[in-house]
Design brief:
By secondary structure, this protein is mainly alpha-helical. Helix content is 39%, strand content 6%. The chain has two domains: 56 residues, no CATH class; 48 residues, no CATH class. Strands 1-2 form a two-stranded antiparallel sheet. This is Putative solute carrier family 22 member 20.
Length: 107
């Protein structure tokens, strides 16, 4: 019997990132329809099965906060730029508001 920790087991089924050093957090090998024996027998050559985006949810660290907006709105992978975009739009509105209302206050 194989003894893997949960992290080792999770990393076993994730491809490497583009940099080739870290495991991908947004993709997994397409192992649908395969039984565990087949997967473990071919664990050194899982690239043959192709790669798909993760679709089974995410594991969030809850050691500091019980819940965050990132977790509630799933702002990971393809949505990770949303907070930066929203902050930029907010600050652009703040600048426009300061200029406009500053000018109107002087009138």
């Amino acid at each position: 019997m194989l003894n893997y920790t949960s992290d080792e087991c999770r990393d076993l089924f994730r491809p490497l990132d583009d940099n080739g050093k870290d495991f991908s957090k947004c993709q997994k090998y397409n192992l649908s329809g395969l039984d565990h024996e087949t997967i473990l027998a071919n664990r050194d050559n899982l690239t043959f099965y192709g790669v798909v985006d993760c679709d089974e949810g995410w594991i969030f660290d809850r050691s500091v906060y019980p819940s965050t907006l990132t977790e509630e709105w799933e702002l990971v992978c393809d949505k990770e730029a949303v907070p930066n975009i929203l902050q930029s739009v907010y600050l652009a509105g703040f600048v426009v508001g300061c200029l406009l209302f500053g000018y109107l206050a002087d009138k």
